[in-house]
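Query form — protein Myoglobin

QUESTION: What is the three-dimensional structure of this chain?
INPUT:
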Amino acid sequence: SFTMSFSEAEVQSARGAWEKIYVDAEDNGTTVLVRMFTEHPDTKSYFSHFKGMDSAEEMKQSDQVKGHGKKVFSAINDMVQHLDNSEAFLGIVNPLGKKHATELKIDPKNFRIICDIILQLMEEKFGGDCKASFEKVTNEICTHLNNVYKEAGW
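ANSWER: The structure tokens for Myoglobin are given below.
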């Protein structure tokens, strides 16, 4: 069985870092997605309604981009609440990974891209310490999502 390798102190500082960015979940979630679509335009192909959008301004205004940004942030928020409970953490990661692998057929490298952009945004807004205390969380999330993909035969 799998157990999370976070110390109590790591859990606390990761949650502290995440709270700062989660306060503005919709804005920050939107920023993260717009950056992803702009810097990695191939990722737009997964979202039929974003395909025609070329300008970042247009994307920022889109309800669909905002809605999905919020969804991504609330999923991560659920994971962050369960860093000290492996079973609950996997209870969120597993179905999410399975859905993206089998139904949505999203390339798992996109999880890493999103996580890296979140870390980048944390650093810009709140400094290197904030980023550093959340890095382990993003690694954990991406590792487990990749495992789910492997099990799904990706």
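ADDITIONAL NOTE: The chain has a mean pLDDT of 93.
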